[in-house]
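Practice problem 4.
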């Protein structure tokens, strides 16, 4: 009887161990399946192929850099980093058709398409590298080409098949957000306040349209026509570039000092009240985030290191791996 009970107990322990092992296996996040050498035996020269294509595009227009970087951010924040933002819809019902995405520059999309063509030109690689991974690699390349850090990119993402306008609703930060709203947007993706501030530093090579910030320089409130947190001289220069009734689609550099260099000037500008968006300037005016802004403003290396950490974490958000999703033959539509 004792022997039988011991055998039963041992069997139960084995079963419990198996259940626990299965649970742990299922609990392993998809991001853990990403690796820097994912294409080593599939498409060993994928990085050089993407690099060459992006360099050619970058030489044609600098807009390639901020456009591609912004495209990556918008993609990852909506359905995860699955290249769903690249999908086009004949009925204008895809992510890219949402008002929050409609201003994404075409050069970002073109960069990925050209890089995809370059990768597929190698018979070993044709239709074996995801558009999501190509976008991630292209983003690293434009950051480095603009003077930012060259960092290792984790690969192994697969492409999503779904892209809808509805998916974008309330998924992207807005120019008027305060610190609490920004953190509430980033935290669910595993991104800390420091990560959020570092990623905001990408605005050092970004651009925006007059319509996105015109309220700050013309009709901030009944008592203040100009946002009091905005440097007055800077506000006047913005008025010259964006006069009343001007086309709201006119593009303005977000970094008025070194708009073509990926550096920490963005944070130095915030210290002087030269953040273009409320969501930029709030990082300095709010006492909780100001120390990080001051640190990045005083130490470019620290900013770039924090940016690499943050964009690596961003690249893991909601990824599809293994047998999930697909490898799109055409980045603009599902197979």
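Answer key:
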């Amino acid at each position: 009887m004792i022997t039988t009970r011991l055998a039963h107990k041992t069997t139960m322990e084995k079963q419990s161990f198996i259940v626990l092992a299965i649970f742990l296996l299922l609990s392993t996040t998809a991001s853990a399946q990403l690796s820097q050498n994912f294409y080593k035996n599939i498409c060993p020269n994928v990085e050089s192929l993407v690099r060459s294509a992006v360099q050619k595009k970058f030489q044609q227009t600098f807009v390639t850099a901020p456009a591609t970087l912004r495209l990556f951010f918008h993609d990852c924040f909506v359905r995860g980093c699955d290249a769903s933002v690249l999908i086009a819809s004949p009925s204008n019902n895809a992510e890219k058709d949402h008002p929050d995405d409609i201003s994404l520059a075409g050069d970002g999309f073109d960069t990925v398409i050209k890089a995809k063509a370059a990768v597929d030109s190698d018979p070993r690689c044709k239709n074996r590298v995801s558009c999501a991974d190509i976008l991630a690699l292209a983003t690293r390349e434009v950051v480095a080409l603009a003077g930012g850090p060259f960092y290792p990119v984790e690969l192994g993402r697969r492409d999503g098949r779904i892209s809808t306008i509805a998916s974008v609703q309330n998924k992207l930060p807005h120019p008027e957000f305060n610190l609490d709203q920004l953190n509430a947007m980033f935290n669910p993706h595993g991104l800390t306040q420091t990560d959020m501030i570092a990623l905001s530093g990408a605005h050092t090579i970004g651009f925006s349209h007059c319509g996105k910030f015109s309220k700050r320089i013309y009709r901030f409130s009944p008592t203040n026509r100009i946002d009091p947190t905005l440097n007055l001289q800077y506000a006047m220069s913005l008025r010259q570039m964006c006069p009343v009734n001007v086309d709201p689609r006119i593009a303005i550099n977000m970094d008025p000092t070194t708009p073509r260099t990926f550096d920490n000037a963005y944070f130095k500008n915030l210290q002087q009240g030269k953040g273009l968006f409320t969501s930029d300037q709030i990082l300095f005016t709010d006492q909780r985030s100001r120390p990080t802004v001051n640190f990045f403003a005083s130490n470019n290396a620290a900013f770039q290191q924090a940016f690499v950490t943050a964009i690596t974490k961003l690249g893991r958000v909601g990824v599809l791996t293994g047998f999930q999703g697909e490898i799109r033959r055409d980045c603009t539509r599902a197979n």
